[in-house]
TrEMBL record:
Residues 158-210 form the PAC domain. This is GGDEF domain-containing protein. Residues 384-638 form the EAL domain. InterPro entries: Biofilm_reg_signaling (IPR052155), EAL_dom (IPR001633), EAL_sf (IPR035919), GGDEF_dom (IPR000160), Nucleotide_cyclase (IPR029787), PAC (IPR001610), PAS (IPR000014), PAS-assoc_C (IPR000700). Pfam families: EAL, GGDEF, PAS_9.
């Protein structure tokens, strides 16, 4: 528009100048050649007609030029510009590194560029006429695609990360922008998707993340990642009312190796230590290098002090073997500091700090050892660890003994059975009660061996009594809840019965209430299978668990043993009286025998007899003792 305006102005100026020049020249010429005024007036008129004619011609010409400028010129110029733009767009379309895909309003692909071919691996003819879902990777659910379509509907655009599949099958991330193209009637005619392959960026990102969170020498998590994991573990433990332990490990006298053998050997040793720790702890643990010669292990789901101490012991053990570094054979020990959540600390930072103080304690105590943050815990844990390893030896050296405690019929006072109770004849500590080692054996898994051994001994002994004509109706053997849920138990019992030849009806297995109730379906099946062998089952320490009466009714159990805790309060404590009476009534209503343990006084026996309890066991009748000491004839009278 500005061009035609300028032309019009130029034409007007030219026309003005020409007219002034024309009038000046013609007037001057006429004045100088003609003296006659009539002639002059005539020629001046002629001159004005000529001028009007010339002016009309000029105006016509100027108009014609102007119109051609305004119409043809602008159109041609626009066409030229459009062509230029199209040419540029085509170059961009072909040369861009981003893949471009154009689909019609039905989603049918109508156009793709060479970059798309390169990124996806598909030739244009394999893509054209298809739909974009041919690239789907299965990485996103239907709701993802729903959101894309909704955004296109509402805003006409979507952009974001999307995982697609190449022709080779490889899944890769794209950054994609999709735009809906609308016509003059606002109807969608096409969709244009432009995307770039961001797998390289992603790889770089993850590599950067790895570098930021890992120690480059050992490739173990560094302090940053370790603290983060510890925080997560604590949060999880808090939610699930569980615990976790942090073991901080420091190599003893590492500096000497580093200084004397060089940093290269030192580095290789650190790497080897990292590998050893990772091999020991494996999944479910986080092993990290916090810096220098300091490592750490995060133990999730660790609620027991002894368990954490056991892991520390494992660290010390694993360090004992020689490290072969280049041509050197190196030995190095470690010290371990342990801190526990929630006992010692409530957040990750505090847990690390406390483990560090515990480590300092371990170092001061002479290295190659471990220490817990709390001193009493250290002593306690050390004791438990010692007992566990001692117990292994005890089994090998046959230091365990089986004692038998008499069980009497309350009505007749006659001894009718015995309960087998294990003892440990310790070379230094003398006779150790099961309460001191059974829980440790349960945690270390040794309980299976102990129970198997006691069962075998008890069955042999019962066979011998039978052969000697001793009239006993049962020998009771305790089975740990750890063992009770395991399928090997059935095998064990049937083998022992077969080996000893004991009549199964003379064997009674005692299981605690919690063992039966915690995993009731498995326990129920186990009980039915054991019953098929012909033996009897009793629930020990009844009243201490939370038995559901409904479940109790389903159990193939012949006896309830009232826990000694309730018997202790008889006959004075009203609560104990009420509980004992209720248990007796319950057992009788279910057709079970009822057996009271822990009877220390005649009054207790009397009360139980008065309330129709069937059997009694306790110091008043007789303590647990070796088989040879049992007095079969003893029948203490309950009534004076
Ligand atoms: P339990 O099966 O309830 O055994 C009864 C416990 O009460 C025995 O303790 C016994 O000595 C004690 N006791 C008996 N009469 C009296 C009494 O009048 N007063 C008092 N205060 N105590 C009495 P013990 O032998 O120390 O055994 C403790 C627990 O250890 C047993 O409780 C049982 O749960 C477990 N246990 C013993 N031997 C074995 C075994 O071979 N295997 C397994 N898994 N556990 C065993
Ligand atoms: Mg028992
Ligand atoms: Mg008991």
């Amino acid at each position: 528009m500005s061009v035609s305006y300028r032309d019009a102005m130029r034409a007007a100026l030219l026309y003005g100048l020409l007219s002034v020049l024309w009038l000046f020249l013609t007037d001057h010429l006429l004045n100088s050649f003609l003296d006659d005024s009539a002639q002059l007036a005539h020629w001046q008129r002629v001159n004005s007609y000529v001028w009007v004619g010339v002016s009309a011609g000029l105006i016509f010409l100027a108009r014609a030029r102007l119109f051609s400028f305004l119409g043809m010129g602008a159109r041609l110029r626009r066409q030229r510009l459009d062509q230029e733009r199209l040419r540029q767009a085509a170059v961009v379309f072909d040369c861009t590194r981003e893949g471009v895909l154009v689909s019609d309003h039905n989603g049918v692909i109508v156009h793709v560029n060479p970059a798309l071919v390169k990124i996806t691996g598909y030739a244009p003819e394999e893509v054209l006429g298809q739909r974009p879902n041919m690239f789907k990777s299965g990485h996103h659910g239907p709701e993802f695609y729903q959101a894309v379509f909704e955004s296109l509907e509402k805003t006409g655009e979507w952009h974001g990360e999307i995982w697609n599949r190449r022709k080779s099958g490889e899944i890769y991330p794209q950054w994609q922008t999709i735009r809906a193209v609308r016509d003059s009637k606002d109807q969608i005619t096409h969709y244009v998707a432009v995307f770039s392959d961001i797998s390289a960026i992603k790889n770089t990102q993850s590599e950067l993340m790895r570098l930021a969170h890992h120690d480059p020498l050992t490739d173990l998590p560094n302090r940053l990642l370790f603290t983060d994991r510890a925080e997560q573990a604590l949060a999880y433990a808090q939610r699930h009312k569980s615990g976790c332990a942090l073991l901080m490990i420091d190599l003893d006298h590492f500096k000497i190796i580093n200084d004397s053998m060089g940093h290269n050997v030192g580095d290789l040793l650190l790497k080897a230590v990292g590998e050893r720790l990772t091999a020991v702890f494996g999944k479910g643990f986080t092993v990290a290098r916090l810096g220098g010669d300091e490592f750490a292990v995060l133990v999730e789901n660790c609620t027991q002090v002894a368990q954490a101490a056991g892991f520390a012991q494992q660290v010390l053990e694993v360090m004992k073997g020689a490290f072969i570094i280049e041509t050197h054979q190196l030995f190095i020990s470690a010290s371990v500091g342990i801190s526990l959540y929630p006992n010692d600390a409530l957040n990750a930072e505090q847990l690390l700090r406390n483990a560090d103080s515990a480590l300092f304690k371990a170092k001061s105590a002479g290295r190659e050892g471990y220490a817990l943050y709390t001193e009493e815990l250290t002593a306690h844990a050390q004791y438990r660890i010692e007992v566990a390893s001692d117990l292994r030896r005890a089994l090998e050296q046959q230091e365990l003994r089986v004692y038998f405690q008499p069980v009497h019929d309350l009505t007749t006072s006659r001894m009718v059975g015995v309960e087998a109770l294990v003892r440990w004849q310790h070379p230094q500590r003398g006779l150790v009660a099961p309460g001191e080692f059974i829980p440790i054996a349960e945690r270390t898994g040794l309980i299976a061996e102990i129970d198997a051994w006691v069962l075998e001994q008890a069955c042999w002994q019962m066979c011998q009594w039978q052969a000697a004509g001793v009239d006993l109706s049962f020998v009771a053997v305790n089975i740990s809840s750890r063992l009770f849920a395991r399928p090997e138990l059935y095998q064990l019992v049937s083998t022992v019965l077969a080996d000893t030849g004991l009549n199964p009806a003379l064997l009674e297995l005692e299981v605690t209430e919690s063992a039966v109730m915690d995993n009731s379906e498995v326990a129920l099946e186990q009980m039915h299978r054991l019953r098929e062998l012909g033996l009897r089952l009793a629930i020990d320490d009844f009243g201490t668990g939370f038995s559901s009466l409904l479940r109790l009714k389903r159990l193939p159990v012949q006896k309830l043993k009232i826990d000694q805790g309730f018997v202790a309060g008889l006959p004075g404590d009203d609560d104990d009286v009420a509980i004992v009476r209720a248990v007796i009534a319950l057992a009788q209503s279910m057709g079970m025998q009822v057996h009271a343990e822990g009877i220390e006084y005649v009054e207790q026996a009397q009360f139980l007899l008065d309330h129709h309890c069937d059997l009694g066991q306790g110091y008043w009748f007789g303590r647990p003792m070796p088989a040879r000491d049992l007095d079969w004839q003893r029948a203490p009278a309950i009534r004076p």
